[in-house]
Design a protein that fits this description.
Blueprint (H helix, E strand, L loop, with lengths): L11 E4 L5 H9 L2 H6 L6 H9 L10 E8 L2 E10 L6 E9 L8 H15 L4 E7 L3 H9 L3 E9 L2 E9 L6
Parallel strand pairs: 4-5
Antiparallel strand pairs: 1-2, 2-3, 3-4, 5-7, 6-7
Length: 172
Amino acid sequence: MLQLNQLSDTYEVRRLGRSDVPAVLALCQGNPLYYEYCPPMPSREGILQDMEALPRGKAKEDKNYLGFFCRGKLAAVMDLILGYPKRETVWIGFFMMEKTLQGQGNGSRMIAEACGFFSEQGYERVELAYAKGNEQSSHFWRKNQFLETDRQVSCDGFTAVVMGKWLEKKSS
């Protein structure tokens, strides 16, 4: 079992639960541009569903719906599936920063720390998808060295563009 609280040296990281839904909802509602490209708009019920959602063939222990906290306040949400779509891959199903913390390098710092942690744990690749047309998301992930693959997936209301990044191997 991974010690996901070690995912960041900068932020306190912990699994999110039902009691965190109001904070997650407020964070999501502060980012309306995301939902213009990736409907529906956030809701309490939708967040609860996202906290439990798993791709086919994955078990509950592979799912990690995480919060990054700064001085006790939710700074970001990250949904991780370990070993998906392949055993050596981590899937970021969702990543969103608190609006007032964007544009200052905080999100890139979180992603860099997470990728370093995944590499230390033996993972070789991180994959994710963004909603086609959302240039803000595309720019963020490209800035963090993620490249588009040739895969696109049709979802309800949008097309998801799959991106990936090979992790640097940590020498022992």
